[in-house]
Design goal:
17% strand, 313 residues, 2 domains, Alpha-Beta Plaits, 6-stranded antiparallel sheet, alpha+beta, extended
């Protein structure tokens, strides 16, 4: 009886595992994996809890969410933050031992990454609540009553660095338009702005209220870049110097146009897969020449002197 039950369980497990795995899709390997997370219904959250047109507290929270995900997602090279969205780029072609994040399994990426972002954002919101002057009982109730935030997630693959740049360009264009509209809508009525594009809106804002969108800092106009940098430290206690690689937040700059694209790529934070392929091809060519020369030498030794060497030499 036990044997029959074990056999049935094994058969059931195999069938259910196959059924579960039937939609366990994987993105291709050896390229760029783009992951875009977006705050779910954040418009209402921002409207009810944060200052307009830009809230430094909210901006810092989004920056920290980006930094957190970058730090713990394998292969992450770069992130772009604007409004309530963050776009990450991952690579898996650094060297022959580099692995893709969870083997580029979509189910893993689309569940784990937004979960990480959601957990970190809510942690930051709760930490901010803890500064509220109130009793422990009231604070606990505030936390329990809190409407928790959620992030959704999209993911895609490309093996072209220009596609990566183009995607970031598209998101920055959206960022600039939203930034201008958000600024104008803070001080001007819907009737005043109706039918005007974003550039006309900020011009009207300057004329009517004397508020110049161009004077805002770049992080609010163009978004923020997140990437790793090496920093030098000195430990006085141990009297020693050392380097650490840390994820830093930088105000973005305009990346449109030839100059903007060149400046973006010159950051050199997202590796160029074509350069890696070129290096691999060069190494392969050197190795081929070495093998050809070795074979030629072995043939000469055998033909001229009757010396036959083992091929492993």
């Amino acid at each position: 009886m036990k044997k029959k039950m074990d056999s049935m369980e094994k058969s059931l497990k195999q069938r259910m595992t196959e059924l579960r795995g039937s939609t366990d899709y994987r993105l291709p390997l050896k390229g760029y994996t783009m992951i875009a997370i977006d705050g779910h219904c954040f418009s209402r959250l921002i409207k009810n809890n944060y200052e307009k047109p830009f809230d430094d507290k909210f901006i810092n929270m989004m920056n920290e969410v980006a930094r957190y995900v970058c730090r713990y997602v394998e292969g992450c090279k770069f992130a772009y933050v604007q409004s309530d969205e963050i776009t990450f780029v991952l690579t898996d072609f650094d060297n022959e031992t580099t692995c893709a994040f969870f083997g580029n399994r979509l189910t893993k990426i689309l569940s784990i990454v937004p979960s990480m972002a959601t957990a970190k954002f809510n942690q930051l919101v709760i930490a901010d609540l803890c500064d509220t002057p109130c009793s422990n009982a009231d604070l606990k109730q505030m936390i329990l009553d809190l409407k928790l935030a959620e992030f959704d997630c999209k993911c895609f693959f490309t093996n072209n660095l220009n596609d990566v740049y183009s995607y970031y360009l598209w998101r920055q264009i959206d960022c600039i338009r939203n930034s201008k509209q958000q600024t104008a809508q803070t001080w001007l009525s819907h009737k005043q702005l109706e039918g005007l594009d974003s550039d006309s809106q900020i011009k009207l804002l300057l004329d009517e209220k004397g508020i110049d969108w161009n004077t805002y800092d770049d992080g609010k106009k163009y978004g923020r870049f997140v990437y790793r940098e090496k920093e030098h430290y000195f430990n006085e206690k141990l009297n020693t110097e050392y380097d650490r690689t840390v994820w830093n937040i930088h105000p973005a700059f305009p990346i449109m146009g030839k100059e903007g694209k060149e400046r973006f790529l010159a950051l050199d934070k997202i590796p160029d897969i074509d350069a890696v392929r070129s290096d691999e091809a060069e190494i392969e060519d050197i190795y081929k020449k070495y093998v050809d020369k070795k074979v030629s030498l072995m043939m000469d030794l055998e033909n001229k002197y009757g010396i036959k060497l083992d091929e492993t030499v």
